[in-house]
Amino acid sequence: MEPGVRKIMKENENLKKLLSEKELENAMLSDALKKDDEEIMNMANEYIDRGLRVRVIANILHVPRYSFYRNDSSEGYSRRNGRKNSSLTLKKDSDKTIIVGNSIVVNEIKVLLSGDFIYYGYKKTAKHLNRLRYGINRKKVRRLIAKNNLLNHSYNKRKPVTRVVKSVFYLTAKYQVREFDIKYVWIHGASRNTYLLAMIDCYGREIFAYYIEYHCVGKDVKETMMIAFDQRGLESISGISMRRDNGTRFVCNTVEKFLSMMNIRHERILPKTPKDEAHIESFNSILEIEVISIFVFENFEEAKSSIGRHVDFYNKERLHSYAGYITLKEMNRKYVGGIQKS
User: Fold this and answer.
1) Are residues 41 and 12 in the same domain?
2) Rounded Cα distance, 52 and 227, in Å
């Protein structure tokens, strides 16, 4: 057969296929106008079996393409079969690799999420399982925890704010900029709030000092900083900046004179700009989610103990996305090792 004839025959076949597809599209559009929502999906699957492409059907019906992919939910209509989800997971045990069922992984997730102060989403849960030597990615973890009703709801759906340029600072080492702020903690048994003053290192994200009492004035802020600086050594405060809001206990003469005496730069953020001290506000948000909104404190001692345990957990055990899903303790160890090598 001559090449020219073969080319014409191929074009004719493509044209017939295109006309056939157009006929199916017109037929489907005509049928769709007569169907209700429940019948349309069954009809769509019938046209898929007749050769009409999913993309074309999705455009006609104005629905996303994934509506026709495999789904575990029991619907009134059948969907096309896809690759089945894996029911097994690999895990390294010493020098060998073993295969475990997903039920074991789910139990491991339940044990993790049942711990105090653990409010992990699927990403940190996946990283935790990787640290336990499970060969599992975050997509599979999300599917497992969603299927077992363990998925946390997103609590931050706000639109990103425009950052003030002058509030941006770049850190290259620890102890350059520190932030501190007050958080109110409700004591149910006493029907009153207590004050939590927390101080954070913006580079290492470590809570290096905190104070919790029923009262908090400038003298308490000063004494908390004195204890923190004494524990960390005076060399750790050389050339640092302390950033905070304009609360009365922070702008008082007691705090101002102390910071001036210690030759520490004192930065005040502008009113109504909490993003300028985002590190400590982030910690306050984590504390609210993982402790304050969960526990009901009957007395001050109970609140102080729980918050103390949470701060210790935050600094040593909690996985932080900022640090690459490792603990701050491990991050600090890498930081010290890098300094020694240099």
Assistant:
1) yes
2) 73
